Amino acid sequence: MSFAAYGGPEVLRLTEAGEPHAGPGRIRIAVRAAGVNPVDWRVREGQKLGAHPPAPLPAGLGLDAAGVVDEVGEGVEGVRPGDRVFGEGAETYAEFAVLSAWAPMPEGLSFAEAAGYPSVMETALRVLGEVGVRPGQRLLVSGAAGGVGSAVLQVARARGIAVTGTAGPANQEYLRSLGADATTYGPGWTGRVRRLGPVDAALDLAGAGVVRELVGLTGEAGRVVSIADLTAPEQGVRFSGTAGDVWAALDATVAMLHRGELHIPVTRAYPLAEAARAHADSQAGHTRGRRVLLVGEGSAG
Asked: Which CATH class is domain 1-116+264-292?
């Protein structure tokens, strides 16, 4: 799946391409499922993300994937062809993709489930570190029902951090099931947040134009981090767009899955040929959990 011009979902094309190969320190997988993340459609639109310029054209898409190892690069140990893994790489909307970081898939996890974890967990752990919230404090999460929000809520709960999450009416019980105090967007939302308790730090995960209100609720721009509002720096708020330690995020994901502390539902799985529809649905917002693309035998789990 690639695009030759920046634009809407309609620019995506399913095309033939040469197979990538695993260089030193890399592995190649036969992709069974690929995660769909907001960064994917931002790249497709040609957005400048932090210090990163728009992707050169033509370009492929996708960071996250789960599949079966079929090629191991020089210097790689502990993995062999036939192993089921999930991780992060480049241009994962494809039949074959090269991963730069990976972990064995936990027993009982489907390819579709596994493909949605790498980037959302890396992002969740990164922004929690950047915003500096500590056990016993309260974190406000704007846009809490999506993939990153779902991960943030569960990591925070495991760390003893109280969370207030905002989301649409249909996702209120979902947020509560993840341990958060929940409230809706819309007129009066800041008052509803205050009634749930003082806010020590806040995360903007949806880019809904609420950065100024988040600063007001926390009392300081340095206590707010956004991953979705490119104007945040103009308001003194940190925009977090550079990936952190993916290997550490994968280790944390596996550990939390084994302890039963983490579950992010797959809202919908699409065939690879329907990537444009997946992007359109993702951009429409009101997402619960994650969206993934199924490739090859991916639907078999």
From this structure: alpha beta
Which residues touch 3 (CB under 8 Å, ≥6 apart)?
11, 12, 13, 44, 57, 58, 59, 61
Task: Answer whether 0.85 is exceeded by the pTM.
Answer: yes
Place of tokens 């799946």: 1
Residues 268-284: tens digit of each pLDDT: 999 999 999 999 998 88
- Cis omega (within 30 of 0) on the bond before 58? yes
Please give the Cα distance from 239 to 231 (Å, whole number). Answer: 8
Question: In terms of CATH architecture, what is 120-237?
Answer: 3-Layer(aba) Sandwich (3.40)
In whole angstroms, what is the distance from residue 268 CA to residue 270 CA? Answer: 7
Domains of the chain, by residue range, sit at: 1-116+264-292, 120-237
Say if 1-116+264-292 and 120-237 have the same CATH topology: no
pLDDT digits (tens, 9 = 90+) for 19-41: 999 999 999 999 999 999 988 98
Looking at 11-169, list the stretches that DSSP marks H as alpha helix, in order from N- to C-terminal side.
38-45, 111-115, 118-131, 147-159
